[in-house]
Amino acid sequence: MRTNRYIFWGMTKSTLIHVFLMSVTLTCLFPIFWMFRCSFMTNETVFVDKGLIPQHLNFGNFAVVWTKGNFEGYFLNSVIYTVCVVTGIVLISSLAAFSFSRLKFPGKDIIFYMFVAAMMIPLPGSFVALFVIMKNLGLVNSRFGYILCMINVGLSMSILLLKTFFDTMSRDLEDAARLDGCGRLRIWWYVALPLARPAIAVIVIFNSLNVWNEYILAFLLLGDSQLMPLQRGLMVFQGANSTDYPVLMAGLTMAAIPIILIYLVMQKHIIKLSGAVVG
Amino acid sequence: MRKLITLCSCLMLIALAGCSQTPKASNKIILWHWMTDRNDTLQKLAQQYQQETGIEVSIQLYAPSESYSQKVIAAAQANVLPDIYGILDKKSIVADFIKAGLVADLTNAMDADGSRWKNSLFDKALADRRFDAGNIYGVTPGIFGVPIDVSNEQMLYNKKLLSKAGISTPPKTFDEFIKDSQALSRVGVIPFVSGWGELWLLDCFASNYAFNIMGEEKIFATYRGQIKYTDPDWIKVFNVFVALRDKGVLMDGIVTKGNKYAEQDFALERAAFTFNGSWCVNVYHNMNPNLDYGVIPPPPISSMHTLKIWGSAGSSFVVNAGSPNKDKAIAFLKWLTAKEQQVILAQETSNLPSNKEALSVISSILGEFAKGMDQSTHPNIWPLNEDPLVSEAFDRGLQAIIIGERTPQQVALDVQTVKDRQMAKGH
Amino acid sequence: MNSKAKSAAIFKENLQNFFFVLPALTIFCIFYIYPFLNMIFLSFHEWRGIGPMHFTGLQNYKELMGDHLWWNSIWHAGYITLIALTFQNALAFALALACDRDIRMKQFYRVVFFLPPVLSEVVVGLIWNWILNPQMQNGQYIGLLNHLLYTSGLPQLVHNWLGDPKTALTTIAIVNSWKGFGWGFLIMLAGLQTIDKQLYEAARIDGASGWKTFTNVTIPMILPVLLVVVILTILGCMQVFVLILSMVNEGLVNHTDVPVTRILSAMTGTNRFGYACAEAMIFGLILVCVSFVMKRLSDKAKQA
Fold it and tell me: Which of A18, A229, B155, C238 supports an S-S bond with A78, CB 3.0-4.6 Å?
């Protein structure tokens, strides 16, 4: 009897949880589904046809996007920028966060709060100054300059997040490694980084998105169209005089798919690794 | 530890290795622009130019225009402007660029050959980047830019929707316009849409009626601070919007509508009238090739003064004064504004050409727009402009009237308060 | 001798520890500190972006103090943040808790909840702008929301959501929450996953109920992560602007102004770079103060 009731309550509870999760899922998916759906329509039908699945599927929009937006050219650049910036941020920010959390040196707190404070000043005011210093360093119109600049954009948030995670993580494994004669750098690489993988996954995802969707700094700093990222192709569609919704939606869908894939892959890793680390 | 130091020094080395190049004269000209719709044609013309002359012109598009503005200002600071570029800001900023030595004076090139180049272009378009003797900006007189097309802002009407409401001729006066709008409302057609979420377009419409109601002298007197915005004539201007609001002329949500969305509304026949610039011919054609529409100036509300519309250079290019390729850049712009190229630009992008000789090839609807150039004016050719903060308050006030939040009297007071403050600051 | 060697060793160690921060600090100084100092410098000047600068001392700041449009914009951003802090974060936490257990389709949910943040702000603005469209065509509402309200028998609820000053800001805040809750969800879930499962096991053996385990184990362990989420929410929402621009353009009169759009309009609308920099400075200062208060509160919470 008791077990029956227990099972009954367990089932009701899990049903309720599923109902809750499903309703949020619907609100999440619907607008995105709407975008996806509209990318298969034409300018004539997009405002009239209210059905869930369009009456006539039109795949031409994707072809238009691919050729008109010069996507193949920009695509590779976006991948290069995303990979380089995210790798850079993970290495540099985890080094710094490890130091802020575990090591001692004078002025540590001040430097840390400086990084945190940096997140609070809005960027737009500093474009001109940024451009001038980039020019003086010879970093205007160079891939490397843009990558460094984007690393800087993601650094503060990543350091804050990683430090928080290092602070909450238990030190037992590190102490054991230290007794085994590991140096700080080895502890960082072999112990702290693997333990912080869920947090690093968050950072990777966050920064990949940021770089993938960024265009203002790219416009400002890059002059050569061969160096431009994907968002530039999208901007062609969003240009002042075009409101071709279906093509626009197709472009947005195509720009969003790679980043969703990155997220899916990272998700798998989190689950696998968190199982290995915690269990 | 060693790894780390290596990493750091590597970073430093790479940072130092990226060396800056100094500009050299070459057979390559770089042009920055912001015109998404004209990019393809410009690229094509550049290729043609390379075949003809061997000079490569690299056309680089930076859209949207806000980012383009930022880029030009930043590049001006760092002195890395390209050979040819455009300045999208107000004329006072153009003046600052000129005074900073970043814009070449083209007067001599324009006057060469008995002023052939200058005479081939519309005078009103040239005036956009021309500074006359005694101008308030303190710029040495001269022509500093080349217009590649001209544009003006007028009212458009959808012939099909108008006939649906039994209207055969477009309105000639503001009263007729209101009556027609009410007739349209009765048959379930929204009378009017425009991109008034973009303040400049709202400002332009209001300015048309200000010219109509009080005439140019009184407007400039207001800018000089001699007449207040609480003057009955300005209240009349504000009341134009009260009438539009109360008679149900305006589409819902007009004050947050971007122009491209308003263009879409008109192209898809969701509204019978709109107010837009002449570039829209190309836009409407792309959105709905079957759209049957006509052009009229905004219908005047008063017979005291002529209603003036805004019209001027659509887009102008300037030449970088510091460029080693200055002469080549000027030669390219001269070629671009010659009749043959202007015909191609006008036909492919449906814009009004800046070259008078190319006018013969334009479509009939563009021809209707072109007629408006005679009664056009533009802030860029006025002897003085209103302080930008006052303009902002003015345009925001118009929006507040449209959504029924404030009365004309209140808005007039608000604007005058800002005006007084700016006058006290000596602007 | 001994103490000297010791202090030398300490110095060496400090230096080595400092090297861990050096790459971050170098990049930071070049790309952040210099532009920041430049911004402070500009905020004392009148400058149009090009041409001569005029030193005006504290004039920009004085004007800013009396600029009610500016202070209104801060209130608007605060309102958007407040909705995000309560509604969005509570939702995110509930979802994270629900997903940190053995339920079916866990992976599916995780992917789905993170889809809105994957889209760029422009895209989100565009999609919602379209869903919220107030117009009609051929007797049908174009906007999906009004269409659904109308066809489901609630025509009295049909509304111009973005065009009415009373609802515009709340609508924007809700769309902002829709876009943002995935972040809180992701970070909180990562936090929940790093909690040592042995702690739960120990609590269970001690006979603690589900609620007791939640308040005594989960909450204290997740608190630092929650605080990071709160701080990130505040910083993210206070600086939101692309979403607003893509939803209501230059704004519904001044009812949808936020600080960053004010800064942008000072820069590109009226070409007052000095004033824009002063605005950015004051805004940064306010955010620093807010974060400082948050930090103090969190320290207190930790002690308690």
Answer: A229
* Cβ pair C162:B198 closer than 8 A: no
**Is it the case that residue B139 has pLDDT exceeding 80?**
yes
Please tell me the CATH code under which domain B25-151+312-374 is placed: 3.40.190.10
- Give the mean pLDDT of A107-117: 87
Q: Which fold has domain C66-303?
A: MetI-like fold (1.10.3720)
Nearest to A47 among C118, C137, C264 (CB): C137
Q: A162 to chain C: which residues are within 8 Å by CB?
A: none
Chosen for mutation from C64, C68, C135, C272 (greatest number of chain B CBs closer than 10 Å) is C135
Q: For residues C58-74, give the mean pLDDT.
A: 92
SS3 of chain C: CHHHHHHHHHHHHHHHHHHCCHHHHHHHHHHHHHHHHHHHHHCCEECCCCCCCEECCCHHHHHHHCCHHHHHHHHHHHHHHHHHHHHHHHHHHHHHHHHCCCCCCHHHHHHHHCHHHHCCHHHHHHHHHHHCCCCEECCEECCHHHHHHHHCCCHHHCCCCCCCHHHHHHHHHHHHHHHHHHHHHHHHHHHHHHCCHHHHHHHHHCCCCHHHHHHHHHHHHHHHHHHHHHHHHHHHHHCCCHHHHHHHCCCCCCCCCCHHHHHHHHHHHCCCHHHHHHHHHHHHHHHHHHHHHHHHHHHHHHHC
Do the Cβ atoms of B70 and C20 come within 8 Å? no
Q: Rounded to a whole number, what is the distance in Å from the CA of B133 to chain A's nearest CA?
A: 33
Of C138, C227, C288, the CB nearest to A120: C288
Cβ of C252 within 8 Å of Cβ of B399? The answer is: yes
Contact state of A117 with C284 under an 8 Å Cβ cutoff: yes
Rounded Cα distance between B320 and C147, Å, is: 53
CA distance B279 to chain A (A): 9
Task: Give residue-wise pLDDT tens across range A24-59.
Answer: 999 888 888 888 888 888 777 777 666 777 777 778
Mean pLDDT of C191-198: 80
Question: What is the reported pLDDT for A91?
Answer: 93
Contact C263 A124 (CB under 8 A): yes
Predicted-assembly ipTM surpassing the 0.90 threshold: no
Mean pLDDT, residues A184-209 taken together: 85
What does the pLDDT look like over B340-393, one tens digit per residue?
Answer: 999 999 888 888 999 988 888 888 888 888 888 888 898 888 888 899 899 999
Domain boundaries, chain B: 25-151+312-374, 152-310+384-424
What's the pLDDT band for B2 if we cut at 50, 70, 90? very low
Contact C248/B268, CB-based, under 8 Å? no
Using CA coordinates, name the residue in chain C closest to B425: C59
CA-based nearest distance C166→chain A, Å? 24
Between chains, do A244 and B77 touch, taking CB under 8 Å as contact?
no
Superfamily classification of domain B152-310+384-424: Periplasmic binding protein-like II (3.40.190.10)
Chain C residue numbers with beta carbons less than 8 Å from the beta carbon of B389 are 270
pLDDT tens digits for range C282-304: 998 898 888 888 878 877 776 76
Per the CB < 8 Å rule, is C18 touching A157? no
**Which of residues B300 and B93 earns the better pLDDT score?**
B300
- C271 neighbourhood in chain B, CB within 8 Å: 89-90, 92-93, 388
* pTM confidence score: 0.85
CATH of domain A71-278: 1.10.3720.10
Chain B: residue nearest A236 by CA? B36
